[in-house]
Every structure is written in structure tokens, then in C-alpha cells.
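C-alpha cells as discussed.
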């Protein structure tokens, strides 16, 4: 047994380590709150349906392939998963094969623009949405995916010095 110095952080770390070690993986899934279990099930269904719409498997969606049909099906699934659940971008990235949150962000932006301007993409998303609703019984709200816009900060001149005008001559 490891000797611990008595402070709050060490004590909490030891207790949480013991609690994590004592929970079996099957029991961890049962102890999960309903909303997390439901979100996981919905995301898995979205991946299956989006893959099937392009004649792919869910392993193809979660894999590293970067060909257009794979990418488009993956991006549509990411878009619908974000609309259907309140999961964070890093959480969605983990669900989609360990991808980075910026990959999810790119997919959301791309599909949002396509849905707004391309009628065929809007129809494809609606077909997927109805198929997901039929399979899961869960109605995906038709809401815009909210993304934070870039705002300049007071640190931008430090981060991007080429935009700073040190002599005040308007370059």
C-alpha cells in the first residue's frame, strides 16, 4: 500500500481511484444517467443510418478513410448527432472514432452552410432525420447548430503581430 501525505487533493485522488477500480465496466454502463445512455444509443443509431445511406458500414464512418462519400456521411452524422444531443464537441469526437473536436466543428460548419444553400443536402439531412426518428423513436429538433463566432480580443495584437501597426501610419 502506498503511503499518502494527508492533504485534501491526495485523499480525493485516492478515494476516486478506489471507486473507479471497484466498478466493473458492465456496472459502469448501468450506473450511467439515463440521458447519457440515451445519447450514446442515439449517436450509434445516427452513425449506422448515415453509413447505410451511402452504402457504408459504421466502421467505415468511424475509420480513417478520407474519400468523399465517407467524409460526407461522417459529416452528416456529426451534424445530426450535435442536433440530437447536448454532448460537447470533444465527447462527439470520441464517439466518432477518437477525432479531435475541431474536426467536429469543421463538419458542423460545413453541413450548416450546405443545408442553408444546397437543396439536395437539405433533403438528404431531412431523409436521415426521418429515418433516425423511425428507428429510435426520438425526434431530432430541427434547430440551427449554434457555433461561437470569432471575436477579436485584446490579445490579438500579441498573437498576430503582423496586424499591429507599431508606427501608427496605417499600414
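Sequence:
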Amino acid at each position: 500500500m502506498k503511503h499518502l501525505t494527508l492533504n485534501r487533493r491526495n485523499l480525493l485522488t485516492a478515494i476516486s481511484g478506489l471507486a473507479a477500480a471497484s466498478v466493473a465496466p458492465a456496472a459502469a454502463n448501468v450506473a450511467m444517467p439515463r440521458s447519457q445512455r440515451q445519447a450514446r444509443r442515439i449517436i450509434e443509431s445516427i452513425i449506422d443510418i448515415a453509413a447505410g445511406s451511402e452504402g457504408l458500414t459504421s466502421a467505415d464512418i468511424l475509420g480513417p478513410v478520407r474519400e468523399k462519400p465517407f467524409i460526407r456521411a461522417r459529416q452528416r452524422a456529426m451534424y445530426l448527432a450535435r442536433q440530437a444531443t447536448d454532448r460537447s464537441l470533444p465527447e462527439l469526437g470520441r464517439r466518432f472514432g477518437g477525432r479531435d473536436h475541431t474536426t467536429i466543428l469543421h463538419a458542423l460548419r460545413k453541413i450548416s452552410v450546405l443545408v442553408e444553400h444546397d437543396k439536395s443536402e437539405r433533403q438528404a439531412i431531412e431523409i436521415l432525420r426521418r429515418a433516425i426518428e423511425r428507428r429510435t423513436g426520438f425526434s431530432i429538433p430541427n434547430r440551427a447548430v449554434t457555433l461561437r463566432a470569432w471575436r477579436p480580443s485584446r490579445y490579438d495584437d500579441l498573437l498576430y503581430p503582423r496586424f499591429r501597426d507599431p508606427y501608427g501610419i496605417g499600414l
